[in-house]
Amino acid sequence: MQLSTTKMKAEARDGVGWIIFNQPEKRNAVSVEMWAAVPQIMAYYDADPEVRCVVLKGAGEQAFIAGADISEFGEKRNSPEATKHYDAVSAEAHRALALSPKPTIAMINGFCIGGGVAVALSTDIRIAADNGRFAVPAARLGLGYGAGGLKRLIDVVGPAFAKEIFFTARQFDAAEALAMGLVNRVVPAAELESYVLDYARRIAENAPLTIRAAKMTIDELLKDAERRDLAACEAAISQCFASADYAEGRTAFMEKRKPRFRGV
C-alpha cells in the first residue's frame, strides 16, 4: 500500500494487518498527516479478506503514542476553522478504527498519553507492557475534550475513573490501568510483541463471520436502545448459520481437527 507519509507504516502477514505509528523521535506523537493515513489503511484492511485482525503499535521502544503532535498546534489549531478541520481529520481516524468490522488490538508499550489513549480506546482489545504509562493531560493544556472521546472512555472504565483520569491529569501505571479496565492484559515488556502476535493469530484462525457478528452486536448494545439496529445484528447472526464456515466448524469438530475458515 502506498501511503502519503513515511510516519505511518502498514504491513500485513499471516492474517494480521499491522498499523505502525512511525515517529519514534517524538515518541510517536500523531501529526495531521498521520491521522489522515489511518482511514486509508483501515479501508484497505477492511476490504482484504486475508486480513482477519488488525494490530496497532508504536515504533521504537519508548511509546505507543505520546499524544498528538503539539508542535503543530500553532499552525494547525490556531483558529476556530483550523481547529474544526484538525478535529474532523482525527475524528475520522477514530471512526475508521471503531467502525471496522474486523477486530482490532492496541499493543501498548511505554507511553500512551492523550491522543494515544484515544486511539487505544478506539480498538477492541488493549494489551499493555508492564512499563506502560497512561494519562490524558487535557487539563494541563487547557484543551476541551469532545463528547465522543469521553463517551468511549466512560464505556470502558466507567464515569468515576473517567473523572479521575481527567480531573487529575496524572500518569497511571499499567497495573492501575488494568485495575480500571482501561487495558485487558498486562504482560512483561520483553514478551509484549510475541504475546500480542499469538493473540492476533488466534483471532485470525477463528470464524470471521462469527467475530463480525459478535462485534456488531456488542457495539449495537452499547448504544441507546432507540439507536440500536438489532435487525442488522440478527441478519449477521443468520449469515453465520447459513455459511460454509458453519459446516466446516461442525465437520472439523467431528473429525477432531483444526477448522479452516474462509469467511463465506
TrEMBL record:
The keyword Iron-sulfur does not apply. One of its GO terms (biological process) is fatty acid beta-oxidation. The keyword Cytoplasm does not apply. CDD domains: crotonase-like. Pfam families: ECH_1. One of its GO terms (molecular function) is enoyl-CoA hydratase activity. It comes from the Bacteria. Keywords: Lyase. Its EC number is 4.2.1.17. Belongs to the enoyl-CoA hydratase/isomerase family. This is Enoyl-CoA hydratase. It comes from Minwuia thermotolerans. The lineage of its organism: Bacteria, Pseudomonadati, Pseudomonadota, Alphaproteobacteria, Minwuiales.
